[in-house]
Amino acid sequence: MVATHSKHISGEFKPHPLALAFPSMNEQEFQELILDMKAHGQRDPITLFEDMVLDGVHRYRACLELDLKPNTQNLDDGVDPIAYVKSKNLHRRHMTETQRGAAIALCAEWAQSGGNRHTSGGDPGHPLTVKEMADAAQTSPRTIQRIKKGIDAGLGEDMRDGKVTAKKAARLAKQVEEERQPVIEAPSAPEAEPTPEALMETSKLSHGFETPPPVLTPVSELTEDGASQEARIKVFEEENTELKRKLEEADSQVQALHEENESLHRILDTEDRMGAYEKEVAAAAARARKAEAENKSLRSRVQYLQHYNKDYIKQIKKLEKKLKAESEPQPTEVAI
Question: 163: closest CA among 33, 3, 53?
């Protein structure tokens, strides 16, 4: 089944299945395209094939929103539509291996379903080999095999849009296949004779006294493709489990950050105390240097006073000797 996009184009032309084999623009990219076309108009023509848009799906949508007349052109006769759409879309830089492989596989599926026989997607009599598809998608044959299993399980759109990888799609497809395997029922025991109570209940039901319980139809029977629905449920369940795991990891990381924050606060408190101690030590060292300078000045003063005192003592002694000499009586001379 060739994938379809959820965004439908209203207007004269619908998107071609080959165009829908490739992922669509996200909303931000589409809004940027609208702004560009609003300012500069439609730069590139829209290519039509089989009265559908083969290339330029988003340009066509933008024209409709801007009320512009689309500039369209038909694909030239003899041009391979698959090769054309691949050359326009396959080598987008943001496409993953799974997305490229899904696009190639979906294009091949279109060719096999009765599309244009003269295409590079192969015709019903000569389908592309897994190796050829892998080479075109620049991936491995094993990836292509996984993608084909995913497409068979209805996961083509999810792989095209990058929601699941080829490996995950193959695993989900296998789980769905195993769950859909018929269960061999054990032989039932022979029916026993109905009891009077059972006969009474049957009588009530047959005469309309009570309404029998409705028979519930399995979900897989309510849809056209039960395997697709079951595979999508598997995708949602796995995504939910993955989100729960990531949430638990985030909670653990938040808790670890809280503990680290508390530890940093303790370290900062210690550093603050150390800073206060360092300031006190620095102040004490400054006071010690000041006291040492004062002590040095005092020693110099003492040395000066001691030197001055020695000189003063010498002068006093000289004066004392002079006074003593002057105070002693002089000897009297006797005439002869």
Answer: 3
Q: Range of 300's domain?
A: 237-327
- Tens digit of each residue's pLDDT (9 = 90 or more) over 10-63: 558 999 999 999 999 889 999 999 999 999 999 999 999 999 999 999 999 999
Is 284's pLDDT higher than 80? yes
The number of angstroms, rounded, from the C-alpha of 87 to the middle of its chain's C-alpha atoms is 29
Query: Which pair of structure tokens corresponds to residue 276?
Result: 């206060």
In a domain, 216, yes or no: no
- Average pLDDT value over all residues in the chain: 78
Residue 222's pLDDT is 41
Q: State the Cα torsion 154-156-162-163 to the nearest 10°.
A: -10
The domain boundary residue, chosen from 178, 193, 225: 178
What whole-number distance in Å separates Cα of residue 287 and Cα of residue 277?
Answer: 15
Q: Is the entire prediction scored with pTM above 0.90?
A: no
Report the alpha-carbon distance of residue 127 to residue 133 in Å, rounded: 10
Tell me the residue type at 196.
P
Total count of domains within the chain: 2
| Within a domain: 204 | no
Any idea what DSSP says for residue 194?
P
- Listing DSSP states for 297-330 in one string gives HHHHHHHHHHHHHHHHHHHHHHHHHHHHHHHSPP
Record the tokens describing residue 250, joined without a space: 């985030």
